[in-house]
Each structure stands twice: as C-alpha cells, then as structure tokens.
Design goal:
This protein is 46% helix and 13% strand. Helix 5 packs across helix 6, helix 7 crosses helix 19 and helix 17 packs across helix 19. It starts with a helix and ends with a strand. It is of the alpha+beta class. The strands form 3 sheets. Strands 3, 4, 6, 9 and 11 form a 5-stranded antiparallel β-sheet that branches. The longest helix has 27 residues. 40% of the residues are buried. It contains 21 helices and 11 strands. The chain is globular, with a radius of gyration of 27 Å. It folds into 2 domains: 374 residues, no CATH class; 139 residues, Jelly Rolls (Sandwich), CATH 2.60.120.260. This is Dolichyl-phosphate-mannose-protein mannosyltransferase. It comes from Taibaiella chishuiensis. Keywords: Membrane, Transmembrane, Transmembrane helix.
Length: 565
C-alpha cells in the first residue's frame, strides 16, 4: 500500500484532475482553505484563482459548492472530512513557506500531508481490524482475510492512491466503532460509550447516511430478533441511560456543526446540496449497481463473492449476527438506491469492516475442508491478480482513463495489457467490426465544410433513408479537428449513429470522439452499428455534446457505408 501511494502512483506529486486534492476530494477539503487561509467561507472570492492555478476541477465547473440566489456559496459536501484532515492541513500550512511553496492550501505540502494523514489513518484502522478479528477468528484466518481485503478489493486503491476520498477514512471509523462496541459490552465502561458517541457523530458528519453505524452498538450481542432479547436490551439501556445520553449528546454536538454551517452560509438550518441527485428508495438499482459491466461492485471486486457466501456459515456459527447483517443489508440498500449508481462499488468499502466477519467465516469453513481449500485457493489468487491488474490499468495501463464501459469492452480487455487503440471504442459502443471491410457500399456522403462544428450550443444531425439492400453492418466515418485536447469524459463530443422507424429511434451506437482525437490534427474516426435483420426506414448521424463541454470540434468528409464482412 505504501508503494502504491508513494512510488507507483503518487497523486500528491501530480497536478490538475490527477492531484490528491482534485474533484470530489477537493470538495471535502475545501472548507479548510476557505476558513483558515482566505477567511471566506461564503463568497468564495478566492476560488477562481485556485481553479485557474491548480485545476482541481475544470475552471468553469466549480463542483465544490453551489451558488445561492444571494450570490454566496454553500459547500456541496458535509464538513466531516475537513475536520479529520485539519491536523494534517495545519502541519502543511506552517511548513509550506519555509519549504519554498505557496501557503495557499493546494501547493505540494498540502497535497502530501493529506496523503500522509490518510495513510496514518489507514494503518491504524488495519491494525485495529486485525486485533478485532483475532478476538473471533484464528491468526491464519485473520491473515488471509486481511490479505484478501488489501490485495483483492478496491480498498487497495482508495487506501493508498485515492486517499482524498472518504472511503478509507470511513473504513477506519467503522473499525473504531466495532472495536469500542466490543469492549463496551465487555465492561460497560463509560469511556467506550463516549467514544462511540463521538465516532458515530463524526462518521455521520463525513457522510450523513453513515448514521446507520448507530445500529452496531444498538444491536451488538443480539443473535436474532425476539421479544425476550429486545426486552433485555431495553432493560440494559435503561440501566446505563445516563452514559448513553451523554454519548448521544456528544454525537449530536458533532453533527450540529453542519447545521450551524448551513445556517451561517444560507440562512437555513438544512440545505440539500446535491441538486437533482437523490435516492430511489422504492426502486433501488440492485442489479445495475452489483452486476453491471460498467462499474458493478461484484464484477470488479469478485473476491467479495466469498464474503456473501460466508453469510451462510456466519449465520450458523458467527456472533453478533444481528448488528453485522443489519448493517450490511441496510448499507447495500442505501448505496443501490442512490440514483447515480454508476459511480461504482467504492461506496461498499466503508462496510468492509463488517463484511470481514462473514468473509472470515467463509475462510474458516474452507480451511476445515482440504478439498475445498485446494479449490478456493487458486480462485482467490486469480481474484487478487484481477484486482491488482485493474488497479494498474486504472492509473498507468493502456485502459487508463475514464469508466470501463460495456460488457464487450470488459471481455475484450480483461487481464490483457497491450491493446489496439480501436478497442477503446468498446467503452462506449458494444459494436465494433475488427476485420477487413470488403465490398462496401456508400450509403451517404457529405463533404461538409471546415465551418461545420459541434460546440456546447450547436449539434449537427444528418438523416437519410435506409438502404434498399440489406447489410450486416453500417459504419459512419468523418474527419475531426479540435484546437484543444478534451480529457474530461463528460465534455467529449459524441459521434452517434441511429436507426429509426417512423421517426422513432430503434437503436443507437455512439463513441466519444476525444478518446482518439489529438489537439491540432485532422483525424478520421468511425463508429459501427451491427444491423443484421432490423427493420428500419431511416439512418441518422448525430454529432452532439449534451454536457456543455467547452471545446469546439470541427467536422468534415462525413461518409456512411454498408457492408457484410
């Protein structure tokens, strides 16, 4: 992990969107320079200079906050991460100028100290997780579980490279909650309860949905739901009511910091800062979030199949079942209910401390059967290699950059290193003819002019009748030119080919042109669609940029052909 974050891909050395403090990570952190350097938490008059100098997000796209009608800004993210990062920010701030850097909140010392602070938090969390698991499982089982966690899941990436995100911090907070819960029920000492109050308050301040962490101390020690067990738990809480009220008060005081900030910044006690993003509580995206080839949790972290299978032996022989299983189920429901489900399986990372219990039960069962051990061991090693391969590819490999895409792209690239550039099209389009085109028939041709452009305001559409002759494939190609390279996935120009019937769209295939288009050079790029026996009467070629990308793309020499093989 230390190698991954300090030598393999040290984000704290990089700039722009690859810096440690970029994109979402810069949003969590933004409170600190706003308060302690610029003393400007509301107006954010300094933001433009920081965006222009460091480019943590595109300068025209200030994602860290949103503008109120008054002209002031409210931070998008809650303040919990900033509070945890504060000691490391302070060290960076007093060190920046003596080391020859600008004390502006984003120079190299700040980037490095956020990385160093996260790594400290990660190693402490792993240390306590090991000690916790040893209370319930053997040293061998614990070692295997930690190995699978660190090398076989995306925790490796978020605990060593993308450490400015919340996930590794939340992971350690959950470990601390589990640790203190265990010892509270062993001794009922006041210090453990007060720590739990502070930890649950802090984890809620980092991400409000993590308030479900309160289920751990509430349900710990219960093995099933029964009237007798619930009565006994209520009696226990009444016995320790003063301690529990004190713990609750501490937690509420910490959470109240966010409400105080919202009141200060907006005049309202509550602000929903995520715009049109929200939850589909009645129709969660279970299948898409879990098994989609774009970013499905189990598709890209298959080692967690072991943990899910391990729920069976955990239910039979595990301890503290109600707390562990309730948290797993509710967290999974929450992350699947979020409408932006395509952000990937990283939101499961914070629940891995509790998932380690069924994973440990699975490994315990496997090790008790020699034949099963010989079957599972090579599969586990394959899963580890798969995760290491993806971690490499995400940052340095030929597949680096942007989301994976389609199932066709997944199977064409998995566990491969050197790939032809054309394969990148499968990120957007499942249809890609990779042979030699013969006996092609030109269906449509338009020379266009050098003034045919696609911008954030202008799109270009060309429609022509379906060919009388039947083809297996239709390919559209055009020459493209851009004066500036666009690396932001969401701002790229789409090159679309659509099949229509009576004005209604039947099928569409598209690619993002700037995946292939270099700055200042005319390049010919094509997009394919497999037609087979589809019944359509029109073909539309569309060039568009729906997300208001700032880059202009010039097009000419559009040609559409039909062919069989």
């Amino acid at each position: 992990m230390a190698y991954a974050g300090s030598l393999f891909y040290p984000r704290w050395e990089k700039g722009g969107g690859e810096a440690q403090l970029s994109w979402d990570a810069s949003g969590y952190y933004w409170y600190l320079p706003s308060v302690f350097i610029y003393h400007d938490l509301k107006a954010q008059t300094f933001k433009d200079s920081i965006l222009q100098k460091y480019h943590p997000v595109p300068p025209e796209d200030f994602q860290q906050g949103f503008k109120l009608p008054s002209g002031d800004y409210v931070m998008k993210y809650t303040a919990g991460m900033a509070i945890m990062e504060l000691p490391f920010f302070a060290i960076a701030h007093v060190s920046a100028q003596p080391l020859g850097y600008d004390a502006d909140g984003f120079s190299r010392p700040y980037q490095f100290m956020i990385y160093a602070g996260a790594m400290l938090f990660v190693f402490i969390g792993l240390w306590y997780l090991r000690r916790l698991l040893l209370l319930y499982y053997s040293d061998l089982v614990t070692a295997i579980v930690l190995l699978l966690l660190v090398l076989g899941t995306s925790y490796l990436n978020y605990a060593s490279i993308d450490v400015g995100m919340t996930h590794c911090w939340l992971f350690s907070l959950y470990v601390f909650i589990l640790w203190n819960t265990h010892f509270y029920y062993q001794s009922f000492q006041r210090k453990y309860a007060l720590r739990l109050g502070a930890l649950i308050g802090l984890i809620t301040l980092v991400r409000p949905t993590e308030a479900i962490a309160v289920l751990i101390p509430l349900l710990w020690g219960l093995e099933a739901v029964s009237r007798t067990a619930l009565k006994e738990r209520i009696r226990l809480f009444k016995t320790h009511i003063r301690t529990l009220l004190a713990a609750s008060f501490i937690g509420l005081c910490i959470v109240s910091l966010q409400f105080i900030y919202w009141k200060y910044a907006s005049g309202h006690w509550f602000v929903y800062s995520y715009g049109d993003q929200g939850f589909s509580w009645l129709s969660p995206h279970f299948r898409q979030y879990t098994l989609n080839f774009q970013c499905g949790w189990l598709v890209y972290t298959p080692v967690m199949f072991f943990a899910l299978i391990g729920i069976i032996p955990f239910v039979k022989r595990g301890r503290n079942k109600l707390a562990i299983l309730a948290l797993i189920a509710i967290n999974y429901y929450i992350v699947c209910a979020w409408n932006a489900w395509d952000y990937g399986g990283r939101a499961m990372i914070q629940s891995y401390p509790v998932l380690m219990f069924p994973l440990a039960s699975f490994m315990q069962s496997v090790l008790s059967r020699k034949l099963l051990t010989w079957i599972v061991a090579p599969v586990a090693l394959l899963f580890i290699y798969f995760n290491l391969w993806w971690t490499y590819q995400a940052h340095k490999g030929s597949l680096a950059g942007n989301i994976p895409g389609t199932s066709a792209y997944f199977w064409a690239t998995v566990l491969r290193y050197d790939l032809p550039p054309e394969i990148q099209k499968l990120k957007d389009n499942k249809d890609l003819f990779q042979g030699t085109v013969t006996n092609a028939v030109v269906l449509y041709q338009n020379a266009l002019t050098d003034t045919t452009t696609v911008t954030k305001e202008v799109q270009q559409s060309f429609v022509f009748p379906a060919p009388a002759q039947k083809f297996k494939w239709i390919r559209a190609e055009a020459a493209f030119f851009t004066p500036a390279k666009e690396s932001n996935l969401w701002f790229m120009t789409h090159f679309r080919i659509r099949l229509k019937k009576a004005g209604q769209q039947l099928e569409e295939r598209s690619i993002r042109v700037q995946r292939f288009l270099e700055q200042g050079v005319w390049q010919t790029i094509n997009v394919d669609i497999q037609v087979d026996n589809q019944d359509f009467d029109q073909v539309e070629i569309l060039f568009s940029n729906e997300n208001n990308g700032p880059t202009t793309c010039v097009i000419n020499n559009l040609k559409v052909i039909g062919f069989n093989e």
